[in-house]
Structure formats: structure tokens, C-alpha cells
User: Fold these one by one.
Assistant:
Number 1:
Amino acid sequence: MKRRIAAVIAALILSAPAAEAYLKLGTRIGDNFVPLHWAAFPIRYFVTNRDAAGVTAPQLQQAVAGALTTWSAVPNVSISSQFVGFTGASPVTGDGMTVIGFQNRPDLDRTLGATSFTIDSVTGEVIESDIFLNSVFPWSVTPGGEAGRQDVESIALHELGHLLGLGHSAIGETELFGGGRRVLGAETVMFPIAFPAGTLNRALRADDIAGLSDIYGNDQFRSSTGSITGRVTKNGAGVLGAHVVAFNPETGKLVGGFSLTADGTFTIAGLDPGLHVLRAEPLDDGDVGSFLNPAQPVDVDFKAALFDRLVAVPRGGTAAAVEVKVTPK
């Protein structure tokens, strides 16, 4: 069965929280979550033969190729892509082609770009995916960035993370500015708010790498990393939608997840073996819809809390039965 979906809109100018976690996109089959993924490589893609002010279609293609190279360079992950050619087709779902291109969308004046999919809703396999960058905004492919213009490769890197199956991460810090939020810093490409125009964000961080590897990692990845599984509870009941963050004090890496079920269960995968600090916090300082389905009963009425001891992550195994207890605000 085919199903068309839109990814969580990426690179929003406004309204997203500052917290920690990566998410995987996917579909639900009964009680099971099936991650969105590509079952076969290379991913064959076209680029719309349409320029934007200051950026030609061939320059867009080169930026996309650079971003795909960055994702495919993640260790112990085998993904690949193939540029098929330029096309007059726009990046819209339903035509059987994976297309990336500029579109003039003045109606989306707070959206730099977005990714959509057609998927097999039984297996979660991607049949096609399309990415548009909004040509209403000024763009640049200058290697060092260009003041007042968004960097094509940085935003393409983010959108291609969605194309590969990643949702938004929330490792970042923002401040209220001009009726919305402005990024002060982010430790992930998949943060949902873009850096100010002229800033580059072309390097993957620990959370991005863990997310991609969790979907496509090989046996070497599985045997060399570990995970943490547990629950977030409040007064003995599960907490849905808590951020749970694993911090490795030796490496400084932050990798996280969410409690995505009513009983508060979470799993954080792709962790380096060793001791980790574990922290749970509410998604209460931004737009829940940037991360989770806003129709879900996400609980934000609790105080951030640390697990009462360090968690030892085993190589190739799982630190299980961890319960982070939080209290109401």
C-alpha cells in the first residue's frame, strides 16, 4: 500500500524549542512503529532545471551532491546516491521520481525548505521523496557563506537527513527574537530552526550520526556501540514525550531520544561504550509539533531531572531497566 506523507517541515524560521534528541520518521502498523527507510541504494535523484536568484540549477546540484557525500561518509553505514539528470518536473510527490529543486512559495514565508515522501505504509520503505528549497529567500553557494543569504548546502544537508528518514533533533539553544526564535547555537544538523543567514552548518554532529546509524548501521556499528532503554515516570505513571538525553562526559557527545509511548518507554541507540549522564526534561519551551504529533497527549508538566547514577553502556549491548523519575512542576 502506498501512502503519501510530508516530513516534519524543516528549517523553520520560527517556533521551535531548545532541547536534546533525534527522532526517526516512520509509520505505525498496529502497535508497532516502522521506521521510514530506503531499502535499496543508490538513491536516484533528479534536480529541477530552475534557477533561484544567485544560484543556478547546476550549482544546486553540486551543493546537493556535497551534502549527500557528507551523509554517506558516516562510518559503518552503507548509503549511496546517483544524480540522474536535470528535469522540468517540480519536486512534488506522486510522479515516481525523487526530485530536488527550487520552488517559489511566498505562502510559506517562514519555511526555507521541506521534504515529502511516498512510502510503502506496510514496510516503511520510501518509494520516492522530494525536496524543495523556497526561492523566496536569498540563497548562496559561496564556500565561506555570504552575508544575508542562506547557504544551500547547509539547508540541503538538513533536508536530506529527512529524506534518509530522520526527524528533527532538538540539541540547540534559541532566543525569542522578532516574534519568533533565533538560533544561538546547535549541536546537530537536524535542529529545526536555521542559523541566521550567512552561517554555515555543513558538519554532522554526534546526534545526527547516531540517528542515521540507528537506521542504516551495519553489524560493525551494532557491535561497537551500545544503547540505553528505560522509562520516564511521574508518580509511578509513564510520561509521554519527555526528552531523554545521554551525555558522555569523556567525549562530550550528546545523543538523545524521546519517550514515545504512554508508559514512558525510551531507547537511545548509537552510544559509545562507557559511562553516561542521563537527563529527562519536558518539551515545554517551543512548538511540540516540530517534533511530535501535537494531537498526542504530550506531558510537559514536570521538572527536568537527572538519573540518580551514571549509566554504564556496554559495547554491543543495552543498559536496560533504567527509570528516570520526574516530579510535577
Note: The longest helix spans residues 57-72.
Number 2:
Amino acid sequence: MMNCYVMTIFPDIINSFINHSIIKKSQDKNIVKYKIKNIRDYADPPHFKTDDYPFGGGNGMIFKPEPIFRAYDDIYSDIAKNKNTRFVFPTPDGKPFNHRAAIELSKTDNLIFLCGHYKGIDQRVRDELVTDEFSIGDFVVTGGELPVCLMIDSIVRLIPDVLNNYESAKSDSFFTDLLDGPHYTRPENFRGLKVPDILLSGHHENIKKWQKEQRERKTQDRRPDLWKKYNN
């Protein structure tokens, strides 16, 4: 079983996410156990303040180190010390998160995620606790909750037995260097828009060839970087 911890000041966002769809199934099947840690619970009373002004001046507020270290200490006392543990922090200045990273993290015994806020977090947290820093794209969002949810979703679905049909995932975009191709279902004719005849032919080899051609065409058109890797 994987233990997945999320450190956040907005636990309701994470709780809502983990109680739906594939993520909920991973809990129901006892494949992943989720534990949400409210960072405010580890801040100093009476105000339980989690942020403060930056040393050296500048705009914005900075996540204080104390509550994050305390939350981590609490988590660390709960996990098996001989198991593989990764501490993940989503940040715009991290390396790009991709499918390969999701595969690697899906093999981890204990995953800890930190949802950042404000201008940033105290660098001592990043230096001493964080093992992996990822960016989900060249843009900035208000907090780390949405990036963490995206990463958890992409990671958990790769764990064996979470998906009912893991073979289906193998044809997803980024599982190889080709993007996914077009899909069709019933009805065969909808408002004059017809399903390609090849898919109705019953000739499986020709269908596979057509599907591969469609994936190659889309990848070449939309992601020349992947197309280059595919051809090397």
C-alpha cells in the first residue's frame, strides 16, 4: 500500500478531490491511503500564523518553516523508516512534471506533497525536506492544491490494480512518444458525421495500422518535439 500525505492550509480542497472517481477507488481497494495534514494545526497559537514577511524586503509573504517542519516530523513518525519516501513540492521553478516522473513516483511507498501559497516557502524547507520539485507548466496558480491534485491523479492511476483495465492506459498520450489518436463509439452515423469505415471493417490488422498512422500524424502536427524523439 502507498501512503500519500498532503500538507495544505486548505484541506477541504484535497478532501473533495480524494473522494471521487479513480482516486476514491484507490482508497476503497486499499491500494493508497491518503492522509491530509492541515499546516495551520502545526503553527504557533494563539493566531496559528503560517506566513511572515521576507527577510531582505520585497513584496509578498513567505511560508514559515516551523509549521511545515512540525507537520513533517509528525508524518515521519508515522511512516515505515525502511520504505522509500519522496517529498514533492510543486513550484513554477521546478523541473517539468511529465509521464516519466509519474511512473517513477508511482513506485514510491510514501509520498508527501506540500501545497505552497503566498510568494513562496522558506528556503530551509526546500533545502532540508523536499526531495522533488516539479512545475506543471509555464504559468502560476494561486496555490499548490490544484497542481498536487493533478500530480496525484497522474501517479495513482499508474499503480497496478487501481484502473480496472491497465492495458487501456498504455495507449494514453505520453505512455510512449506518440499522442493518443481519435476514438469513436455508437451511433455509427450522428448528424451525418460517420465513423471511419476502417473501424467498422472487422480487419484488426488494418485497424491497428490506421490507429498508429493517426497517432503518428497527430504527434507530428502537434508535438514535433515528441515526433523527433519517436523517430530517433
Note: The chain has a mean pLDDT of 94.
